[in-house]
Amino acid sequence: MTQESLTEKLATHLMRPVDEATRQRARLHLLDWLGCIAGARQSELADKIIHKVDIEYDPLDMARWFGNLLEMDDVHRTSILHPGPIVWPAALSSTPETMDDALVRAVKGYEATIAVGSTLDTAHYRNYHNTATAGVFGAVAAFWAYDDSMPEGFPEEIKTMTSAFGLAGSVTSGLWQMRNEIGDTKQWHIVAAHDTGNHACCYAWDGLVGPRFILEGPQGLYAATCENPKPMTFPDQWRIHEVSFKPWGACRHAHPAIDVALELKAKLGSLDGDILVETYADAISFCDRPDPQSVNDAKFSIQHAVAIVATKGVPELADFQPDAIAALAEFRSRISVADASDITDRYPEHYGARITCANETVALVDALGDPERPLSKDGIIDKARSLIAWGGLSEKEADRAVDLALNGDDAEAIDKMLSDWLS
After folding, report:
1. Can you give the three-state secondary structure of 118-170, one letter per residue?
2. Coil, helix or strand for 54?
3. pTM for the whole thing?
4. Nearest in space to 337 (alpha carbons), one of 414, 275, 393, 405
5. Domains of the chain
6. Angstrom distance (rounded) from CA 103 to CA 106
7. 201-244 confidence digits (pLDDT tens)
């Protein structure tokens, strides 16, 4: 008997039906993604894509660019990636017949992204953007048309999906060099992963054959980019339930410091004097930026995030804009960061931090929005409303988005709303 590849096992795993509770969970992630799109609509990148790039995009094509722009997209901790920005445009642009169909595709897109992403090791993450690498597999799964009735052709469907995974995986990448330069590459990663998954599906349906062992083969993804890939697992519960919602408009690695700073400030009444932030090594690698020079730098600066809390309180998107960056320069100089081995040892299962100020110390193991400290449904709705307002849209449009995402049964209505927002 021929050995079954990991992508064949993954394809089989995805053919299960999706329960109603999981579809309802997906609706919350849809609303969260819509809020991120709305919030980004008045950005410089939106101006380029909508008005200056000489390509005619439909609404979902444009939306691909904006899901991660504000750094508020959902995140899966242990795979260290953001599924929503890639999965939702794919699930909605694959001509779903109903909203339930789109939700099912999205759930399976999240599952494939996380299943692959969770196998990638620290050596991979050192140079590669896990969202981009694993995202092509999620895009394939989200574009796929599923039949819960398990027809006689089911084994053939597994074979075809495996080819699509193989085609997509053979060209996946996403290098972190963009972290060292100003530009739009992080958004391009999302677009490229989405489009690669789409093209891989189309060509596999037309009979093109991709490598079955694209992950674990001798010249596959693991051999090329990992030192110690982790085992792929196939849990009974859909992994969208493990995905976190981000309350603050900064890199997720800065969130634990924000949460601890808020708690310590509440305890002391103010954060005066020098502040020491201890956190895990990746948070420092990504977010030790005492002197941010741009909005994106500020979103990846623990020092700036903590300075916001110390001087103002709960961070808002306006606090990462140029005026705020300049205003907080002196306060940032009072904040130092350090790698704490005990916190690093718990990562990536837990994103934690510890802050000391005025001889008082507070520590948290998990960030707000993680499964252990979840945002409530009302909190997710409030976040979406805030983002929609940030994007210059009316309260009526916020009502429209909440109703379509949480109660709607017409996937095309989402496309129409995005067309209104992004035209």
Report:
1. CCCCHHHHHHECHHHHHHHHHHHHHHCCCCCCCCCCHHHHHHHHHHHHHHHHC
2. coil
3. 0.96
4. 275
5. 6-242 (1.10.4100.10), 252-364 (3.30.1330.120)
6. 5
7. 999 999 999 999 999 999 999 999 999 999 999 999 999 999 99
